[in-house]
Amino acid sequence: MSERIIKLEQAEEDTQKGRYLTFALDNETYGIEIQHVIEIIGIQAITLIPEMPDYIKGIINLRGKIIPLMDVRIRFKKAAKEYNDRTCVIVVDIDQMSVGLIVDRVSEVLTIADENIVEPPQMNMGYPNRYLKKIGKVGSEVKLLLDCNKLLTEEEQINLTQAI
Amino acid sequence: MTNQNSNESMLDIYLFETFQMIEQLEKVILGIEKDSLFSPDTINEIFRIMHTIKGSSAMMMFQNITELAHAMEDLFYYLREEAPQIVDYTTMIDLSLEGIDFIRIEAEKIKNGLSPDGDAAVQISQFHALLHVLQGGEDNCSAPEENKKVLEQLYQQPVQIDEEGSLDSYTALVFFDEGCQMEHIRAFSILYKMREFSSVCYSIPEEKRLTDEESADFIRQQGFWLYFKTSLDYDSVSEFFYNTIFLRSLKLEAADPEKLSNEEALPKPQPVKELAYTVGGAGKGSEQLEVAAAPAKTQSIISINLDKLDALMDLVGEMVIAKSMVIQNPDLEGLEIENFNKAASQLNKITNEIQDMVMSIRMIPLTATFQKMNRIVRDMCKKLGKEVQLEIIGEETEVDKNIIEHLSDPLMHLVRNALDHGIETPDERLAKGKAANGTITLEAKNAGSDVVITVKDDGRGLDKNKIYRKAFDHGLISSKIEDCSDKELFRLILRPGFSTNENVTEYSGRGVGMDVVANNIDTIGGVLTVDSAEGEGTVFTIKIPLTLAIIDGMNIGIGGSCFTLPVTSVKETFRPEMKDIIRDPDGNVMIMVRGECYPLIRLYEVYNIKTEITDICNGIVLMLEQNERIVCILADELLGMQQVVVKALPRYIQSLRRSRNIAGCTLLGDGSISLIIDIEGLISSSISC
User: Fold this and answer.
1) Is the pTM of the predicted complex or chain greater than 0.80?
2) Does A59 reach chain B within 8 Å, measured CB to CB?
3) Which residue of A has its CA nearest to B608?
4) In total, how many domains does chain A have?
């Protein structure tokens, strides 16, 4: 019985491995590992929370569950853009915290084989690629694969540890 | 992984049951002490509980608990079967309570993930010694020593129940040939042989009793009864029994384990001498037949994981929102739909009832918490040489489960304090013209949406002068004693580091008590107040909300956002007038209400919200009181009052927040979110004092 469950779990893990949900901000396409994604919803009424960083837009009520929303544009220091019909919220689960990511639009789910994933180049000027985990190549296009955990950690903390 | 999970939940159940049984056991034993009476019913109950603890502990492989429970079980088995006339009941009660404590401590260790490593050898030997004394008091029916020796060689570990699903359960009733003698030894050898292929869960007479020659008589008359589990099939089991020598008859049946785990299903052993034998005082007379102890309340109760309840509550909340979305759907506007409206109001009624029911599931009575105090009072009375009676009123009052968990410690402190500091020694009391027996009254009652719990003693009361001197020495107070009201003085004892008792005793006097109590009660949203009259006693009153999960909320709007305040802290609301508003040179705004001046907090400033109403006169002012500090806040408008379910802010938001002026959030009827203002946090972050 328990063996079967483990096998099932492994099978599930296998089907999720190498699959990424991609979304677009401006001209770039980003990917996040599908295992983190819970669902995709349209934008809805947001309740503001005072004294929050600007990239935290507030909280929403998702069927009785309260989840915070992060505007990925602002998180990536891009200009804010008004939300429209195509604006999506990707609900992700990271370390058992549910967070909604506001993105311009969701593209598709892609399977990227390991051999097509490369390390991001080391940039010496400005910030290092702190949200970027890997770069995936699909045909002639490039998908920036994000490190979800780093999306949630405070920038200040990262800066601090790097300074040390 | 799944295996581990199932193990954990088994441990949960074991702990839950064990704690419950310990509590019940304690209640029974204290009841015995109160009535100075060992009735067959109570002995039966103790025996039954010890037996269950032994069984389940053995199953979970907690050796020390098993052994202790076994020793206790033996003792009470002897009492049940033999009904000895002279029982040193104080020793026995003390010893039993000690045993319970040991099991409780070990169970706590298990609960906290430690291994139960306590050594019960002392208690076990005490139980054995007591049993020996009891047995020694009786004329020993010439038990042949040789037989005993044989048995002791055969005797091994107590039977352990193997929990394996594939085993079949059987019961067997064995009679031996008349006149074959030594039935008990034969029964024992059956038991011994059976262990090779099965696990024996229960037998009558019990394995240990088989060392006693008297059990032979029992087997002769009633047969040897066994309940066991085995992987063998019916035929091979019966074959085994028929191979036993001197077998006269056998009744072998496949058994339903569910039914058999219940003691009722067991055939009653030889009727116990139905005498309620009095213990202790010889004057009571043995003809006192009526048995006082009521049989233990059998409740038709199941235990539920609290997580599931919380999930259920969330779901019901969603359902209520979905319901209002259907009924108040904008598409329905202007339609003549009588039947729909009828159905809708029915739906409305049902959802409301479901909501009430789910709320009530979380409520549990204070009984267990209050009953614990009995034990504390008893132990302390013995140690301190005081005579105190604990009176419990309104224990059936129900409070939210989360609150009860936090209530036990503060109550314990209060009761200890009352006993240690409050109540005088009997001599002192008599000298003052009071009854030698002190009384501590523990009372709970409902008052609106609050529960009020009072701990009252009729002891010496608080000494105002002493409190004042102490507080003055510690720099807790600077005004003169004449300027302090009684209430203010009494409140001083709730401050950290304050203890009027110079002598540190085992129970209290370290000066960490009262402020911890006050803090604990504060965390569950309650208020602790003290009142006292010198020479007459002290009353501690705890006012706690019925539940933390639901509050009566006042919704206010500020610039399009909705905020919720607990109604209990709103004193009044009013439209301010220009002439009442005062600005000091630093730019702080104050408001004058009936000759008193209060600070005014503009919420849109605190929360940095854009609103059109910045002129104080256009808004509305709410006067809030928290911990006897009063502030006024400015809001745009009042949106109304409703009961709201408090939800915590998402963890991610909490990790980003630095200030603490939002306590949580809640869902409003239309599915939108309102933030709950933490008044305490708001006051301390906005006003420095």
Assistant:
1) no
2) yes
3) A50
4) 1
